[in-house]
Design a protein that fits this description.
Catalyzes the synthesis of GMP from XMP. By secondary structure, the protein is α/β, with parallel strands linked by helices. The protein contains 10 helices and 12 strands. It folds into 2 domains: 195 residues, HUPs (Rossmann fold); 103 residues, GMP Synthetase, Chain A, domain 3. Bound molecules: xanthosine-5'-monophosphate. Xanthosine-5'-monophosphate binds next to loops.
């Protein structure tokens, strides 16, 4: 029966057979699938693999460090980080429309990746061993979904950052193609990856860019990052991670409301908590979080995060609401 050690051994053999002495490129997103597929390929072919991580500035607090420090320490993967924060912010300046944001983020991601890829490909070719392979963290449900998408409506365009240009000249290495998410997590744990990555709840490719209702700016990202970190910390502390599918934290940057703090009137922004329970994200219900946990999160956010004077709870199921606000 199913055993993560066997799956790892089997995949390592397959990857070696496919790749031989060829070089391999991988894009890490910070998510579970790319982290586990990259670690598997690294176990199989070592430094024939180079991983690229694009920091688009839309990550949550600590995520870049998780990849650069903890992930690299636990795997030994050779990692190149591309700091594209300014490029993304400039490209997003003045844009409020959600679909427009997704398109820009998807496009800029591909550009940033292509830039470093060109350098790596040239370097490898000069050394006489060209990069011929690309790792993809495709799971079994992705395979099924893209095979027969009959009747599926495209409600939002889902750009998977970590999703790559279509005209790449690489052969794909997809070691997770037969696996489900919980199996991928088990393999990640067996490989010794950090729990913060392996146990991570779903997070959209466009990141915090689609959790700021309104224009994305550096200032607003900082506010949202702080609020999100508090919510995550308190939910984890209360032992609720297993009960929640994910909990988007959203900044209503275009809304202000009046508040009072100390002796003064404030005029700040609301933060929305959107905890949901779900099996597959296709439908979801809002999670009935304990009042004391909600209260703790609300107090901390309004006390510790500047410009936020109100915390509101989203009590909408999906449908009619989507999980994300954009
Ligand atoms: P919605 O908001 O459509 O979200 O109910 C369903 C699931 O998909 C995630 N999501 C995205 N993931 N790129 C992604 O990679 C996207 O553009 C995107 N939009 C939503 C969302 O977090 C939830 O898990």
């Amino acid at each position: 029966d199913w055993n993560s050690g066997n799956v790892i051994a089997e995949q390592v053999d397959r990857i070696r057979a496919q790749v031989g002495t060829g070089r391999v490129l991988s894009a890490l997103s910070g998510g579970v699938d790319s982290a586990v597929s990259t670690a598997l390929v690294h176990k199989a072919v070592g430094d024939q693999l180079v991983a690229v991580f694009v920091d688009h500035g839309l990550l949550r607090k600590g995520e870049r460090e998780q990849v650069e420090n903890d992930y690299v320490a636990s795997t030994g993967v050779r990692l190149i980080t591309v700091d594209a924060r300014d490029t993304f912010l400039n490209a997003l300046a003045g844009v409020s429309d959600p679909e427009q944001k997704r398109k820009i983020i998807g496009r800029e991601f591909i550009r940033a990746f292509e830039k470093v890829q060109a350098d790596l490909v040239a370097e490898a070719a000069a050394e006489g061993e060209p990069i011929r392979f690309l790792v993809q963290g495709t799971l079994y449900p992705d395979v099924v979904e893209s095979g027969g998408g009959a009747g599926t409506a495209n409600i939002k365009s889902h750009h998977n950052v970590g999703g790559l240009p279509e005209d790449l000249q690489f052969e794909l290495v997809e070691p997770l193609r037969t696996l489900f998410k919980d199996e991928v997590r088990a393999i990640g744990r067996e490989l010794g990856l950090p729990e913060a990555i392996v146990g991570r709840q779903p997070f959209p490719g466009p990141g915090l860019g689609i959790r700021i209702v309104g224009e994305v700016t550096a200032d607003r990202l900082e506010i949202l990052r702080d609020a999100d970190a508090i919510a995550r910390e308190e939910l984890t502390k209360a032992g609720l991670d297993g009960e929640i599918w994910q909990c988007p934290v959203v900044l209503l940057a275009d809304v202000r409301s009046v508040g009072v703090q100390g002796d003064g009137r404030t005029y700040g922004h609301p933060i929305v908590l959107r905890p949901v329970s779900s099996e597959d994200a296709m439908t979801a219900d809002w999670t009935r979080l304990p009042y004391d946990v909600l209260s703790k999160i609300s107090n901390r956010i309004t006390n510790e995060v500047r410009e936020v004077n109100r915390v509101v709870l989203d009590v909408t199921s999906k449908p009619p609401g989507t999980i994300e606000w954009e």
